[in-house]
């Protein structure tokens, strides 16, 4: 029985790392902050959607409204809530 040479072991390790599914995983930080980045992160961590919905419900219960103009309070609250509960 022969033992593999160190070069063969190193080559095998490099090949396994190259074909690993984690080596091709998408890094969501490459997207700017916003809906696309959140969608990417939500696919990797399904609990984010549950947390975001809980934060929206809290904001609505406080009377915050969604919308453009000066009424961005709900969106701002949800973002702060997500960071706070993170």
Summary?
The protein is mainly alpha-helical.
Can you put this structure into words, describing what you see?
60% of the residues lie in helices and 0% in strands. The chain is built from four helices and no strands. It starts with 5 loop residues before the first helix and ends with a helix.
**In which range does the helix fraction lie?**
55-70%
Q: How far is the first residue's CA from the last residue's CA? A: 54 Å
Q: Overall mean pLDDT score?
A: 76
Unreliable residue runs: 19-24
Q: What is the overall silhouette?
A: elongated
Count of distinct strands: 0
Provide a count of the helices.
4
**Largest beta sheet, briefly?**
none
Number of domains: 1
Measured by DSSP, the beta-strand proportion falls in: under 5%
Q: What class would the helix/strand composition place it in? A: mainly alpha
Order of helices and strands: HHHH
